[in-house]
Structure formats: C-alpha cells, structure tokens
Specification:
This protein is α+β, with helices and mostly antiparallel strands and 209 residues long. The protein has helices at residues 16-27, 47-52, 71-81, 92-107, 110-115, 119-122, 132-148, 162-175, 183-193, 196-202, and strands at residues 5-10, 32-37, 60-63, 66-69. Strand 3 (60-63) and strand 4 (66-69) form a beta hairpin.
C-alpha cells in the first residue's frame, strides 16, 4: 500500500475527472507523481499509454504494478485502501447516494457539459448564451442539488465528500461563466471551489489553448 502513486492527467489540466482524483489524493495526504497526456495529439492512444490504461483515458492512476482508470473507480479504490480524509460518506445510504450523484453527473446533463465545458473554469467564460436544452438541464441540476443539500448545510452528506466536489464543479460551469444559479447553490459551489485541495488544481500553470 506504500508503493509510489503516479497520476496521469490531461495536458490542459481541464478534465473534471482528473481534478476529482487529484483532489482525492491531496485529501488523503498521499504523495504522488503527476504526468500529463496530450489528448489532442492522441497520446492516450500511443502504445505506451494504451498498454498502461485499460480504457485509454485520463485520469489513470498507477499504484505499483496496478493501473486504474475512470475517476469514480479510482476515488473508491483510494478510499478503501488508504486512511485520511474519507472521500465518501460513512453511512451506507449516504454513500450509495453520493455514488449515484457521481454517476449521474458523469452520464447526464450533456448540454451543460458541451456548452459550458471546463474551459470556462480554467481559461475564461464564453459569451454564447445557453440553449433551451442547456437551460432545461440546468433546471434539473438545480432541483437535484437543492433536494440533496440540507438547509444551512456546507456539504451534501454532513462532512465533505468527493461528491461535493463533483456537484460544485457542475454548478461552477454555470456560475463562473456568469449564468444564473440560485443564490444558495452559488454560495455552496463557491465555498467548495475554495477548498485548498481544489485550489491546488486551479492554480496549476496551463498551456494556451
């Protein structure tokens, strides 16, 4: 369990999924090496990386002789293996709900992900207005997070979990672009974004697009 950890992420440091694992490693207090993969140059399809990463995607975490891709699989692996800040809620149903939320954020809300890519978070906002489909997706996002976030709570499930990061990131695609977000959710997303482990990622030096 003490073998060197090595995290492979995108060269722009813009992947929300790479961010999730990067934050998880810092929350656990784990030392790791960081390497970038140029997705535009299809380095993820090159022989070396494709042999390493089963799904040929970032993030990919290498732990000794074991390599794992897909961010939620990685964060669950880290949480089960290492002590430190819990990445998922302790209560079984809350833990299941957090995983449900992660899966939903990764598989739905496509209009938001397309029209408010993570470039708006790390490179600056776009002036393009949201389409009707994106506004509808945003309304669904707000309804779900409003339902899960208790009144006057800082986090979704009592203590911080990686699901807070993922939820806040989706909200921040809109908030940091200047799109309308309900005040309570905007405050929640802003607070999550200031977490020191998240700011480590935000402050990384990025190459120009």
């Amino acid at each position: 369990m003490t073998a060197l950890l090595h995290l492979h992420v995108d060269a722009q440091f813009a992947s929300p999924y790479a961010l999730s694992v990067f934050v998880a490693l810092h929350e656990k207090g784990l030392a790791f090496e960081l390497s970038t993969v140029d997705l535009a140059a299809r380095e993820n399809r090159a022989a070396g990386f494709s042999r390493l990463s089963l799904t040929r995607r970032v993030p990919t975490l290498v732990h000794g002789d074991f390599a794992l891709s897909e961010s939620s699989a990685i964060t669950e692996y880290l949480d089960e293996l290492f002590p430190g800040t819990p990445l998922y809620p302790k209560a079984q149903r809350d833990r299941a709900r957090a995983r449900q939320l992660q899966a939903w954020l990764r598989s739905d809300l496509m209009p938001i992900r397309v029209e408010r890519s993570t470039e708006v978070l790390f490179y600056g906002p776009t002036q393009a207005p949201l389409s009707e489909a994106a506004r509808s997706a945003a309304a669904t996002l707000f309804e779900v997070i409003e339902t899960l976030l208790p009144t006057d709570a800082e986090h979704l499930f009592g203590a911080w979990s990686v699901a807070d990061l993922d939820a806040a990131l989706m909200l921040n695609r809109l908030r940091l672009n200047g799109d309308a977000v309900p005040p309570r959710l905007a405050a929640y997303a802003a607070a999550q974004w200031q977490r020191p482990s998240v700011q480590r990622w935000v402050r990384l030096e990025r190459p120009p697009l």
